[in-house]
Amino acid sequence: MTANLNVLVAVCLGYVAFLFLVAFAAERAAARGRGGWLRSPLVYTLSLSIYCTAWTFYGAVGYAARSGLEYLTIYLGPTLVMIGWWWTLRKLVRIGRTQRVTSVADLISSRYGKSTFLAVFVTLIAVIGTTPYIALQLQSVTASFASIAQADPTAGPLDDNRNIALWVAAGLAFFTILFGTRNLDANERHHGVVMAIAVEAVVKLLALLAVGVFVVWGLSGGVGETLARIDASALGQWEVDGARWAGLTFLSAAAFLTLPRMFQVMVVENDDERHLRTASWAFPLYLMLISLFVVPIAVVGLEVMPQGSNPDQFVLTVPLSQGQNGLAMLSFLGGFSSATSMVIVAAIALATMVSNHIVMPIWLHLTGGGAVISGDLRTVVILSRRLSIAVVLGFGYLYYRLSGGGAALAAIGLVSFAGVAQFLPALLGGILWRGATRVGALVGLSLGFVIWVWCLLLPSFGLDVVISEAVFTQGPWGIGWLRPYALFGIEGIDPMVHAVLWSMLFNAGGFTVASLLSFPTPLERLQGAQFVNVFDHSGRPQNWAGGIAQSEDLMVMAQRILGPAQAQALFQEAAQAQGLAGYLPEPTPDFLARLERELAGSVGAATAHAMVGQIMGAATVSVEDLLAVADETAQMMEYSSTLEAKSNELARTARQLRAANEKLTQLSVQKDAFLSQISHELRTPMTSIRAFSEILRDGAGLDPAAQAKYAGIIHDEAIRLTRLLDDLLDLSVLENGQVNLNIRSGVLSDVIDLAVSASGAEHGGLRLRRDRAREDVRLDTDLDRLSQVFINLIANAQKYCDAARPELTIAVRAGGGQVTVDFIDNGSGIPHESQTMVFEKFSRVSDQKAGGAGLGLAICREIMARLDGSIAYLPGQNGAAFRVTLPMAQRIAAQ
Ligand code: ADP
Fold it and tell me: Which residues lie in coiled coils (predicted)?
């Protein structure tokens, strides 16, 4: 076989076709339920090897050639995590499964109260953080193509590298779309892909081992020889930079947990928690094997390759230079495998996030969510996944173009690591610390992200691409402490360590402080408890016996939130609608949606959704947990509404007490006034009766005329007294409501006629003005009482109208179901401040010569109230004016 470029392309395509077949077969087997072997710990462990990308395959040798053993840190971190943090991984996997987590963004957002904003934010960081990494794969595949092409004398000069990169990106996008979005799985599992990347893991390991064996035994002449060469090489003298070692080990450990693609294979694609146990030793072993020959290849490569060759390509160029074309081809396939497996999984993971957290919410929002249950949603999801994959790879290509494709592979990889490592505080805090809050996660992520972008991502494009050299040396706008490589004026730290140190410090600090200062929502707390105590909650057998059993649980929960009556009514109604007897309907999607809406009114949409979803999904929360939350909420709501009701009641009682007190005071004052008035009113006639009767009794010498006069006075006073007593009696009867009304039908003009003649107004010099035509109104009322009111008003005009030629206008107006009768005289009227007062008992406007005890208008008011009407003073009429209002007779009003 020759290293012909055409052959190379053919081999590539053949290899891809083979992988596709593997994936296809695996999926078929899984679909038929015969895929038990797919779920072996070995496959799981091999799938984890996507951690080792083209960076590892090509870059590690380059790294070693440049920086000695430092490349080991990249393996040290994951190894430490796998061995030392096994329990954290197990927790992540358990949470991932019980909460049906689909991505790292989903996990973080679920933990912090299903925050959409947080999900979008994490997704964006993940996309931005992974972009350099994808660029790295493009770069290495492109470079490997170029290396082979250079060694191929039959091929013409290779056209622009960029074109190759573009083709590779497009090819990978196509490949990923074919692989990753063939169908949709509710749990986002991709058995076929996992199987394919497991195969790729074997290929890349074998390829690297083969090159290593060739180098050690074929070129170098054995183990002893090789070790001697290593000792003699510059590699052996590299000094270990402690800060960089610590920083990079931490970084690779963090990235191992937070890289979206690692999360995808480790958590999302995990079938069985127990696989972790195998992986915890098998994966470090894999890492050891794959890094075994890195140093020999680097050392030998530096020796045999001409000065200035790219050490990142030694794995490929060393066999090529020795004419080992077959080995070179295998090596190429190993690199190709590393790159493709990483890109495929990363693109799938990112596409899931972008589609779930950005594209779908927007689409559902735009379309009003109408297609939620219909089948076409699946098409939309698949389409949005495919689009997202294309976009993600497009970004990778763009980064490759922008960064010029010249940077060392390792450097690019580390930029990526540092970006996604920003998830670490929110992720670990979320699963280990119940007090962690959404605000804390947001603050921490934002701070870390901003520092990462400024100190690492933007500078990674190179000088003067995004950040000018002046900014590096003097800071933006001359602010020295903002220099990207010397934040806060602290200089001399390795840029990588510098960025990681500051970003993680601010991220973790901000996260902790903001979490302590903010208050979590109930859903956040629920989720927090679920995540942190995942081992207490899950693992119990979930025996959901079927629809009705779930309905019963839903009913129990609904009763606690809605109250028994409402919940029972809701359930019974739904059951009836489904044609079932009793109170328990089938939990159909319709009913669940309805129930959620009902519950949402009490506990909020998110909580309602979580509660119903968790009962139905039977996922994590035990019914007891849910009930505890429901109880708590119900109690809190009940308590607060009881408190509110109590305080309202207290306020009402206080108001009533105050009013009653005021009234009592008033009544007491009135009673005193009334008593003194009565005694005064009674005493005056009594005094004169007594005086004149004494004169009559003692005065024997009185002439008959005087006798008659005195007797007349006594008689008048007695009549006045009687009238007063009559009025008082009348008033008291009216006020106590003991009056018997004599309702009759009559015409208003007759009543007025009667009142006019009874009051004797026609003879008393008072001119009356009437419009008899308007008075033809039929009334159903106590006509005698009504005329008593009229008589009083006419008599008052007679008594108090002080005009030279007194006149009284009686104006009637009927309409709107009532009749008004106005009595307007042309006197000086009643002053404003007395206008309401005159209706009170014993109220008289001033000391009048004529006039009664001030009971007349009070009686009128009482009578009108009994007749369902009213009497009021009518101001602004150029004289005293009283308006009597009466309801119109029913049959007339009805006409
Ligand atoms: P009285 O028995 O004194 O007439 P009323 O209750 O009928 O008592 O009237 C109360 C007071 O209202 C009278 O004392 C008088 O001062 C005033 N008043 C009533 N009608 C008129 C009127 N037409 N013009 C002026 N003052 C009036």
Answer: 643-670
Does 852 contact ligand 1 (Cβ within 6 A)? yes
Q: Is 830 in the pocket of ligand 1 (CB under 6 A)?
A: yes
Strand partners, 872: 883
Please give the model's pTM, rounded to 2 decimal places.
0.60
Rg, C-alpha atoms of the chain: 50
CA distance 212 to 206: 10
DSSP string, 32-90: TT--GGGG-HHHHHHHHGGGS-HIIIIIHHHHHHHHGGGGGHHHHHHHHHHHHTHHHHH
185 CA distance to ligand 1 centroid (A)? 94
818-825 vs 807-815, strand pairing mode? antiparallel
Q: Which two tokens stand for residue 788?
A: 């008593």
Domain boundaries, the chain: 4-97+134-360, 541-631, 652-735, 744-887
Looking at residue 629, its pLDDT comes to 62
Q: Spell 272-302 as b/e; 16+ CB within 10 A means b.
A: eeebbeebbebbbebbeebbebbbbbbbbbb
Q: What is the pLDDT of residues 215-269, one digit of tens each?
A: 888 887 877 887 878 777 776 666 677 778 888 899 889 988 899 989 888 888 8
Q: How many CB atoms lie within 10 A of CB 770?
A: 16
Distance CA 498, CA 252 (A): 15
Q: Which of 819, 816, 797, 799 is nearest to 864 (CA)?
A: 819
Q: Which helix (H) or strand (E) holds 814?
A: strand 807-815
Q: Which CATH number fits domain 652-735: 3.60.130.10, 3.30.2130.10, 3.30.70.1110, 1.10.287.130?
A: 1.10.287.130
Per the prediction, the chain carries an average pLDDT of 80
Which tokens is 543 given? 């025996």
652-735 and 744-887 have identical folds? no
CATH no. for 744-887: 3.30.565.10
pLDDT digit string, tens, across residues 24-64: 888 888 777 666 666 788 888 999 988 888 878 888 888 88
Residue 407, φ and ψ in degrees, nearest 5? -65, 155
Does the beta carbon of 880 sit less than 6 angstroms from any atom of ligand 1? yes
Q: Which atom of ligand 1 is nearest to the CA of 839?
A: 6
